């Protein structure tokens, strides 16, 4: 039987203003998260984490209800809506 790794939730964030590219507000206390679970709601979004802001037509698509388990640099990833009224729900983990 394998060992299950333990994750600890460090916070939750909902971003509702995605008409321009926006980054995450990553918690810093009690410790910095190493992973985020991100779900689009309302409309699909696009994201990039290469230092270039996504646009409504350029970037990695994230469909409504799809889950992105992201463990890259949480301070570099940015999101934008593909149509009005998109939001993302984010839970942070270590």
Give a summary of the structure in a few sentences.
With 94 residues, this protein is mainly β. It has strands at 9-15, 22-23, 35-41, 45-48, 60-62, 67-70, 78-81, 87-93.
Instruction: Count the E strands.
Output: 8
Q: Give, in spatial order, the strands making up the sheet with the most strands.
A: 1-8-3-6
Report on the biggest sheet: 4 strands, antiparallel
Write down the Rg.
Answer: 14 Å
What's the shape? globular
SSE series: EEEEEEEE
Total domains:
1
Strand content: 35-45%
The CATH architecture can be named as Sandwich
Secondary-structure-derived class: mainly beta
**Subunit organisation of the chains:** single chain
Q: Tell me the CATH topology.
A: Jelly Rolls
The averaged pLDDT comes out at: 94
Question: In which range does the helix fraction lie?
Answer: under 10%
Give the distance, in angstroms, between the N- and C-terminal Cα atoms. Answer: 23 Å
Low-confidence stretches: none
Number of helices: 0
Q: What is the highest CATH level, the class?
A: Mainly Beta
Written description of the protein model:
The chain is an all-beta fold and 94 residues long. The protein has strands at residues 9-15, 22-23, 35-41, 45-48, 60-62, 67-70, 78-81, 87-93. The two termini are 23 Å apart.
């Amino acid at each position: 039987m394998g060992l299950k790794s333990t994750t600890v939730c460090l916070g939750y964030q909902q971003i509702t203003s995605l008409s321009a590219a926006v980054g995450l507000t990553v918690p810093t206390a009690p410790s910095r998260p190493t992973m985020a679970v991100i779900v689009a709601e309302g409309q699909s979004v696009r994201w990039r984490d290469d230092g270039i802001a996504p646009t409504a037509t350029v970037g990695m698509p994230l469909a409504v209800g799809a889950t992105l388990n992201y463990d890259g640099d949480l301070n570099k990833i940015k999101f934008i809506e593909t149509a009005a009224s998109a939001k993302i729900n984010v839970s942070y983990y270590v």
